[in-house]
Queue: 3 jobs
Job 1
Amino acid sequence: MIQTFKAPTLRCRPLRAMTAGTGTHCPASGRWSPIGKVQDGQVFFEGSLMPSFDGAPVVWVLAPEADKH
């Protein structure tokens, strides 16, 4: 009997949520949201400065990638 095995799926991003604070450089391109305000997400590109939100400094969270399979 011949068995075949599926190749493991490689992940480009860590399993833990990536965060970045106001005034720091964006560590990865994607859709970022202030913590607790997922509906207010914005797209930032790697290397850009993370802005404040509603006039106050915040911690931004990178949204998980949608499953493409």
Job 2
Amino acid sequence: MAGMFELFTDEVSGFRFRITAPDGTVMAVSRRFPDKQSAVDGIRAVRDYAGMGHITDLCPAPSAGAVTGPVPPPDHRTGAAPGRPGTRRAQTLTRPRTRVITAA
């Protein structure tokens, strides 16, 4: 089952659309459009351009001092990273940064 485009009016009476996954999870929300026809045209553009589009990674590369390797699991009672009560440990990238990924 495919996702769905939902057209709606936002709190400022602008038109927007959201893309939802088959389970109802909101995957993306559009910018505000001045009228309904513009929003529908925006949906058409997303369908045309994003189908098998390339992925460009604009994330910064990990710093030289970044911790690599597996991240220890959080404490199951508190969700905290080991040794740091009340905090969660962020995962770091452990592979080289790729600028453009193409579909095979």
Job 3
Amino acid sequence: MNSRYDAPSPARRVRRRSGGKSLLVLILVLIVMAVTNPGKEAFSEYSVKNLENTLGQEIGDGITKQVAQPVIESLTVRDNYILFSVFSVPDLKNTNFFTRDGGATKKYIGLFKILFIKL
């Protein structure tokens, strides 16, 4: 007989999957999301830039800081969910805006202080 087959084989190593690394990455992403959760100021800056893109021209910095941003901040309702925020803004194109019910609203989800997605 062949001695190669008679010798006991060394213990087989079992590779563990690195679930710990994935969990660590997930926790880090959640912490970054919580720290960079946008507020009304970040949303108003985004709204003014979006307004400039819609109009096709820049709005002066003085006008933006003195008029547009405070108006948008006062009209915005923020729902804070710690990792992200949902912003509700009245739809100014709706004719019911000036009635008591407030009319329709546009909603945006805000992530990382720079990403706003229209819902």
